[in-house]
Records
---
Amino acid sequence: MSTLEIRDLHVAVGDKEILRGVNLTINSGETHAIMGPNGSGKSTLAYAIAGHPKYTVTSGSVLLDGEDMLAMSVDERARAGLFLAMQYPVEVPGVSVSNFLRSAVTAVRGEAPKLREFAKDLKNGMDALSIDSAFAQRNTNEGFSGGEKKRHEILQLELLKPKIAVLDETDSGLDVDALRVVSEGINRFRASGDTGVLLITHYTRILRYVQPDFVHVFAGGRVVEEGGPELADKLEDEGYESYVKASA
Amino acid sequence: MGLETMPVSKLHAESSYDVADFAVPTGREEEWRFTPLSRLKGLHDGTAAPTGNVVIDVDAAPEVTVETVGRDDARIGASYVPSDRVSAQAYASFEKATVITVPREAVASRPTVVNLRGLGVGHGAAFGHIVVRVEPMAQAVLVLDHTGGAVYADNVEFVVGEGATLKVVSLQDWADGAVHVSHHHAQLGKDATFRSFVVTLGGDLVRLSPSVSYTAPGGDADLTGLYFVDAGQHLEHRLWVDHGVPNCRSNVTYKGALQGDGAHAVWIGDVIIRAEAEGTDTYELNRNLLLTDGARADSVPNLEILTGEVAGAGHASASGRLDDEHIFYLQARGIPYDEARRLVVHGYFAQLLEKIEVEEIRERVLSAVEAELAR
């Protein structure tokens, strides 16, 4: 049983305050959707939790099972059990997917996986996400299409098995087939029941494949409304307009 | 930025076997302005006592002949005339030259390794001359392996005959404090193939000037370089490709990483396509990765085209820092900073390293890069 606890989180980029007091608690076995218009601070929340140097936490706390994430380096947070699937996965020239994944799995597990076991896990993971096995030898994310990059993020999610996964607009730019493949990956990941998911999205589309337990509406850098899955349907019908006006 | 306006043809106009034809450099000359002359230990002004020692031994493939010859051997200087003061000094000062010959149509069954081992920096300067002749249709791989301490100036001639192939790895793995000023000239015959892989890691000051000229169409030269500059080191590579005949090709790719205070890399990429050299295809690239503050990279590509009929001609130069986004992405997957940095630098060099065909050398360069990163 794990808990990610975000308390009164304020985050700035340069002099500009983007997050203005975010409160969220995610327990393992739960899937939370954060929905909001562009520019509401959704991605800032994701990157701030992961520890991207561009984002400065000015006050508040982020605790994973009581441990202070904000005091940790980016890699320490990941090893503690946090995972961020990025909206724009980074191309790393000259570093092959298999080398990258093996380094990541080694770091997170604290020991190098047995070569044969790792090769098998990797192959199974790639098959499940319909990733061509030739990708293992390609440079990380280099020349990947948008859909390939997102599938590669979910492959990492399944291999690294974090306690809490933050998925930042994993659905953006995906066609229906890719969306289904990626959603199935997320569902496999959460099927164990001992992981928590924070799903950040602009659209309700992915929520038809990945059913959330809680929906939070984000506007103006904070959560402005919370509810169950029915809230997503309301957003589908009415859009974000009323929230944007209220937070302005 | 005066260099961009000076035609390449002017920069390489001077050449002579006689030291006296070259003035002692002051540091203001275009070709010397980046080099710290005070660290050359007198190689440039005639004050270096020729009392140093670099021991040369050659482990040759069975198909290859190796001779040690006197200064009067007609093969010496046949393909190359010294083009600066230190090169002329080396030409005037060496006592014995090494001539390596790959006979006509011979295919060397293994690399020929030339070990050049300096016996110490404090004993004066040493001078050398090597001629490598690959006769028509022959093929060979050659390794020049520089180690130990030395103050060393030399000239190396590669004469690649018609339809022949020569692949050279030159490893500058000198001990701390070493000074090495070297010219590598490749002369390519009809349809000759030349592959040069330069790796410069060690020494206080290394200034290596690889050049290529063509005597007939169809010549194909790839010049690749990798360097890792540490605090206080000056590592300089001056490329010069002279396209003087039609339908030849050249590709220059040099990549370096720099770390530490006073680490200084210099890369000059001079290419000329003369009026006669129609159908030339050339590209040159230099990249520098600055791993810390206090390091400096000077990179000057310089392409002069005197014909309208080229197949391709271009250059690129970029110097930058480690990309924070690369590091963040790897760290976000649990990979610690040092390991992330190692992976990214590895990736930066990976494409080049694949080009080293001699496996022992590739492994050695890899572990040398690892060791540099662990510092």
---
Amino acid sequence: MVTNPLTKNIDMSRPPLDLNAYEAASGYQSLHKIAAGLSSDDVLQQVKDSGLKGRGGAGFPTGLKWSFVPRGEGSPKQKYLVVNADEMEPGTFKDRLLMEGDPHLLIEGMIVAAYAIGASVAYIFLRGEYVVAERALRKAIAEAKEKGYLGRDILGTGFDLEIILHTSAGRYICGEETALLNALEGKRANPRAKPPFPQVSGLWGKPTIVNNVETLCNLPGIIGYGNEWYHSLTKGKDHGTKLFGVSGKVKNPGCWELPLGTPIRELLEVRAGGMQDGVQLRGFLPGGGSTDFMLPEHLDLNLDYEEIGSVGSRLATGTMIILDDKTCPVGMVGNLMTFFSHESCGFCTPCRDGLPWVDQIFKDLEAGKGKESDLQVLLDHVDYMGPGKTFCALAPGATAPLGSGLKYFEDDFRRHISEGKCPYGN
Amino acid sequence: MAKIIVDGVEYEVDSDNNLLQECLSHGLDLPYFCWHPCMGSVGACRQCAVKQYKDADDEKGMLVMSCMTPATDGAIISIKDQQAVQMRERVIESLMTNHPHDCPVCEEGGECHLQDMTLMSGHNYRRYDKKKRTHRNQYLGPFISHEMNRCIACYRCVRYYDDYAGGTDLAAMASHNHVYFGRHQEGTLESEFSGNLVEVCPTGVFTDKVFSQRYSRKWDLQAAPSVCTGCAVGCNTTPGERYGELRRVVNRYNSEVNGYFLCDRGRFGFGYVNSAERLKVPVRQGDGQQEELDANEAHQLVQRLDGKIIGIGSPRASNESNFALRNLVGDDNFYAGVSAKQHAANQLILELHRDAAFHVPSVREIESCDAVLVLGEDVTNVAPRIALALRQSVRNKAKELAESANIPQWQDAAVRELAQEDRSPLAIFSNYASRLDDVASDTVVAGNQKLVKLGSAIAAELAGESASAGLDEAERELIGRVAQQLSSARRPLIVAGSSARSMELIKVGANIARALGKRSGNVIDFALLLPEVNSLGLSLLVQKDKDLSAALGVMESGAAKHCIVLENDLYRRAATSEVDAAIAGVDSLIVIDQLATPTSAKADIVLPATAFSEHEATYVNYEGRAQLSYQVHRNHSAARPAWRWLCENPAQQVEELVDRCAESVSAFKGIASLLPDLNSMIAGMRVPRQSHRYSGRTAMKAHVNVHEPKQAVDSDSVMSFSMEGIPASKDATVLGASWAPGWNSNQSISKFQDEINGKLKQEHCGELLLKDKQASGDFFNVTADQSDANNGLEVLPAYQIFGSDELSAHAPAIRERMTDAYLSLSPQDAEQLGLKHGQGAGIAGTDYVAIVCIREKIQPGTVAVYCGTEINPHDLPERIVLNANADIAERGIRGLIVSDLLEESY
């Protein structure tokens, strides 16, 4: 049986499989099951039972999310599926691999999801810089249309689906699902108030599911091979495989598909080949720029949503950024603060006006102009921009590396102030 | 009734509201920026954080934004909780990182919501020592100044301007802390309601440019409750005066009329009051000579006129002035100072007002109507505030959808996102494309004949008769659709009025409303628009047959020896030749007015009258609502309220005159209730016009006399020209500028409302005069006028918010927005006549030249004529012939804002 359903067709040394080759590699099985009579309720139930959690970062159960979409008689006729392919989390490049390497997998996943929720139009909101993925997806969509896998009355099921590929003009906030919907509607990419959730009132005010690329890529396997197989993949409590990435001063940075529950040490030392010679591991952000730092002592934890959560961080996108002992942690966090403050949409006060202040303090620290009182301001901002205080998760995300950085690397912050310069020579 | 507990105290609440609104309704102080009482919540500023507890045992609680949290029964919250207090303080600290330290030179200072909230939050020490971000400001036209550095990005401006008022040229741009609120490029803000930005902005980003030019602090302004005289809606205003000059007009909340918003004519149209051209002394004139008269002598002269005198009243003069003139000349000799056609329309409207089948809705009621048909009215340019209300009426669909989706109405962004372009029906049948077309479900632009035909078909359809005669397929569909929308609405509304100068259209409107009423058994909302502030009041004072033609006839025949014209320019009301002939027929013409007019130029005696802000008076708005407007400041010239020239007692008190009017004219019997009873006030104390912080009282006249002048005594009114008296916070019966402890800005109004958006605690919303209904009438028999279509173009009157009103057209700021007279033509007619956009065209048979304005939607065969200040519309025949004429007037039509211009510029 397949153990790497997400990447089994990916070989970056050649172009991605075209539709025929993809089908030959047992692709579009799920679509044929639907054509053979699998109902949308069955699909929904199967996805619920699979235990699949969203791979975009929040880890919300996918089937549960789908179940909030009004179904049946009296529900709004038009519903939408939107693929969040605006992969902009710092350090994250997993969706790119999937879209560049096996675009038909995403399209098959979209067909399954759209069928389950009753959407006749699906949008792919693609990060604008992903031009290779764009080309691959356009080709794959055209092939699927040609083959009758997209369009009207797909394989005689009476189910219609049109896929529209939209390339983003580019803002990190578009990764926030409701800001993404606003951007798709041609409005400012500000997040929307929740409730109402997009499942009830989303794109153009209609019920909408926004799923991450990787989440959808799990669906062909779940429907094609069944939950028993799916549940056999994991090594831990959460189901399935996941793409994990490592960037930073490791010997072999990259992105791999591993079962959930794989030990962090295996990812770092086996897949990424361990640290480069001459540098030591100082800490790491386990799931992109908006997760809390973890320390070398956490290496024996498993890559599992709950386990990572137990030490105050999040698995999130599963793509880790490594901090080594020759790199200034203040500089690293400052770099992220520059990013987050620049990417704030400007809607709510703590994020819009809090992050630039934080960013400016980091710039002062690095320039040797930091003051003792700045540390208190930073600590205050960790609280002030935290969860529940802002309109969306952007600023709370930024406080993750900020707060944990201040906690774990306090000495480095203090040395910047007492020495009047960056001790790492930045 | 739901109950919530705030800091241990139980309050009764409406669970359909959010916590912030309920806290404010109960008088609690809780700072906020992005929430607005009539625009709801979006959760942007994070200023209104409170602690919410799950239950009585929950000691930890959770911070929530009170504006985004429903006031559910049993909710337990704390405003005083330390974490909540700290959060609110930090938000201010954040906002202040970029806000400049320019309060002393900022126009908003002293009435700045940001100042108030900063103090309320407790933030006072600035830790931020980095650079502030700066912006470039934009030129936004003659009304509004822009200072983006002060912006705290609450998003209220764009939410108001775009979402609420339908503007398209103000937007939030850029992102993070560079977010910029402005136009895509510099230029005049196009919305007719742009002035409200001044009040919507919680700080000094958008300020009143007219006010800035002659600036004074709020606390230094002498102010009183007033009523706008710009049109027949009767919005409530607070004008402010300093050094004898009227400095600005701001909105005064009236829950039934204007709520929180004014139009730009109302806000910026007061400038004529300060005009150097104001008439200041009584004069006798003739043969090119002018002789100043002593005021008492002039008064005696009017009182001792011998022989038959006729009086011509005015729709822009108060009830009291018209009533005084009527008394002086006698009921039989008192004429309406409006054209015969307008007078007939007014009388018809009055008749419909009294018809039990109809209800003329208030502005607030209009907002709640869920299907609207506008017949022949350019609402934006004739009754602007109602256009803003109609724009809200189309949102009833959104409210309905939100209700079924369980989204609270106050979740503003969510409700808009849910409804998207789904709107309640608004069908606009008009002579030319209107500024509401963007939210209309159907628009028909045509001449009156066609509008009458289509309207009649709707009435027939609703009455269950055959409606298809003479209609094509598309028209039949349209008729069916509109009829269906109106008949299936919960609260349908028909809007008609006198502006299209078609009695038939008003009758058709009545027929439609009557047919609707007969179907549903309900009284139908029928908004009947009139042109001027006191059109209806004047109509109530004049006999039915006493129109201006009759007056001019009497004058021309020599039957009247004297004629007194009250605040009126007859050359705007009747054909030039008729007025000339009439004036030649009387021995003496006496004109009482604020400014010189072509009529006053021909007068033998000219008496200066005070302007709206210089006297106390009542006016009756389009719905029959009589409202009292107080005197704000004194006029130091010899000008008097017109009634003081006309009444025998030169010191005639207005309140006594109001009482007399109520006694002698039955329609006015309720009007005396508008007058507050001085005796009921604390120890007979008066209400001060000057604020408790009014400064410079002892010194402001020091350049004239170093001794403090005696405070002027106002014997007329319950108000005084001083700082002393009953503080508004003790008794807000007479509320000019609202002010409450800790609340210096206009947001303090919440402290005077019985609940947010409710009535003011002790204030009078005005008195509806036409409450006594008569039995409902019958359908009108309407026949479309079948004039010869081959002879020239059918003239349709066009209006401009800036220019069509006589007095505001003298305000400098308004003049900057005015265009010259123009002729709106269809592209076909223009081509056929060889006329180009922007070119001058002569009107055959007259000396008038106007500018050609080619508009895509004008019906061929018609021409919508905007007469500006240069054409007397009564000189034009019903159909006109145009010929090319190279003379282009000075202003041209630059800056003209209509939706269907064929060419943007010329």
